[in-house]
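re: ur question from yesterday

yeah so i grabbed the chain u mentioned. its 665 aa long if i counted rite. heres the sequnce exactly as i have it in my notes:
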Amino acid sequence: MEKTKINGISTCNPVDFDREYLLFTANYAIERGFRHYQFIGPIHDPIKGNIDGMTFYRKYARFNGAKNAEYVRYATETANEICEKLNAAGVKSYMWHHELELPVGFEEAYPEILNSDGDVEISHPIVKDFLENKIEDFFAACPKMDGIVLTLHETRIPLLKLKNQKLGKVERVKYVTEILYNTCKKSGKELIVRPFASVEEDYEMMTKAYAEISSDLVIMDKWTQFDWSLTLPNNAFFNKIKVNPLFVETDIFGEYFGKGFLPIMLKDHIIEKVKYCETFSPVGYCSRIDRNGYQPFGTVQEVNLRIMEACLKGENVDDAIDGFFAEKYGKAGADARDLMERTEDIQKKIFYLNGYYFTELSCFPQVNHCKNHFYFEMMKEDYRIASDEWFIPKNWTRGSLEEVLNEKQSAVSEAEIKLKKLKESKTVISEDNYRELEEKFQNLYYVAKLWYALTKAFIAYAREDENGLNAACAELLETNAEGKKTVKNYYPAKLTAKLAREEDVDSVPCFVKDVKASYEKEKITTERLKKERLTDYIVCGGGREGHKLKKEVNFSDTYIFDDGVCRIPGTNRGKAWSTVNAHGWFSYEIKVKPNAENEITVVAKGSDGRLNMSVDIDGQKFVVRQEIGGKTPITVKYYATAETARIRIDRISAYTPYVYEIKVR
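ran it thru and got these structure tokens back, copy pasting raw so excuse formatting
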């Protein structure tokens, strides 16, 4: 491999700037010969995120009052200090940024930028002027920063979802990107773009727009297609990049596999991915090395950085691994390496089901996530998963339920063997290193046991086996209590608490409480609907809702209320930081009477006293806009020509529709 390839790291993903940690990683980058450094920062924080959260506007100073002034000053001072150090060593630095971002209150201050649908018209001159000034303000505050890494998703103003725009999607991407590209260029800075697209059509559209702007515009994208799961395929979308340079983004810390709490050595994963990426002649690689405040330095996980370094330098990977373990563990190096072998395979058995993504960002999954990712549905004897979402492998088959349970049981057994081997090496491993390894492998063992019990809970729920569900839940609680008692930094509770920014969150009891409530409410609703002798019915948001559910990627939350379970098109949390997540849709395949008129009833209620949604039945669209209080049946007539139809529910405003039941008469 060419030694001139760019080797980079990205830091603070996605958390507040930490001066001490950033100084450490900057020194690390300089000492280890990295040439590229990215700050990610709290990109999802509506106040501190992106360059908006660390820049005082000049021309648009009227909006500075909503900023966290203390954080702006701290982030700017820290960034300048780190950039100066990196700059002096010849290391380029870049800041992550998402668009389209406008300050809260911007639309009210400039109502002329809104179109007849109430959405921002992005081509309005005021929007362009604001974007140009914002970029100039940022580089004026951080003059030694070399550029920006741009993502056009996960923003308050959803660029690609805005309605009634003068520009189509390709033109929209090109328009906004070109504003930033030209403003960066005018300031003597660079722009790197991230397509961040999970649909092939969107990817082609975005790369087309980038190519039309400039052949010099660098495209950075993940080496796994769509996201960071170990079982996701290589990024086949790379072949859509025809003109622009490719810069590969990697995750070598473990965003979806333990986040540092669980031991993992990614030797096979990294080697295989680099080999694949090299067929596209990338200009370099940038590796994510931390997540949510957790980082690999001083731990066994640092071995993955050494593996990546060796791959980029064309050095022998096994020699690099042996060197790391000898350096960190001395005479116990061989024993420590042996412990870490096959940890990647063990985690795959825990977090995946025959190659199917089977977790929640490597946290213990909550009931909403499980329903959104078909974990209940896949445990039916006659499971029917119709979604084409990215986490489902092509032509995936589950195998028998016995094979499913055997996979989880084998992970428990292998993790237990690792723990025993570690204890046998206690006399040759230093106390500090032993304590760190013990904690990681204890967590691995208890996580394996939890996922085994979790799988039993799904199977029992799908079978309508209430006794089996209660037994599995009791096993979950018992395992969780034992893990909390045994492990100082117990992974399932501690990590979920940090992600939720609450110290009293315990994910396993939360799951048990919700899954029992969901089962009981779904049971009551199902028994009532059976008595109505319907052609078909769906308990929306239930564990057994089935009906070949499809939805917009991950955006279709389920809820458990006093009046039942329900599903929404979108996510409630989206309203807090990203309207692109707030808007969404879901659809089902329903049975209908062919060659006859059917009555289809959707039972729903709206948030804040309003019910706004659209109902589409095989292309026949019905728009609902009502001011209502509680649950309301909305009935439409549909003449069917076939035995099945697909019904789709779309969110059409900021008022969330909670959909409880769909009935066909």
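noticed a couple things. The longest strand covers residues 596-606. also Confidence is low (pLDDT under 50) at residues 497-501.
anyway ttyl
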